[in-house]
Design brief:
By secondary structure, this protein is of the alpha+beta class. The chain has one helix and five strands; from the N terminus they run ββαβββ.
Length: 80
């Protein structure tokens, strides 16, 4: 189940090794935000007057954790 105080954690992995994250209240919001990052890039605001925009090609992955994001198409992983 999701963390009732904070919600679901959305983490965005940038190609320079940094991981930006924040919390959203629902699986629907997590899906919306994840899709927007992949399409439009990630915008970071540190709250001190610095705004940065990372274009989509700089994003390695977007990960949602801390709860269940339902899907009709679960996938599996295999490797050697």
């Amino acid at each position: 189940m999701k963390n009732k105080k904070k919600g679901l954690k959305v983490s965005t992995y940038i190609d320079d090794g940094r991981i930006f994250f924040y919390f959203v209240p629902s699986a629907e919001k997590a899906r919306e935000h994840s899709a927007a990052f992949i399409k439009d890039g990630y915008r970071h605001n540190d709250g001190r007057g610095i705004f940065e925009h990372y274009p989509p090609h700089r994003i390695l992955k977007v990960k949602v954790s801390g709860g269940v994001v339902p899907t009709n198409f679960p996938d599996f992983t295999e490797g050697t």
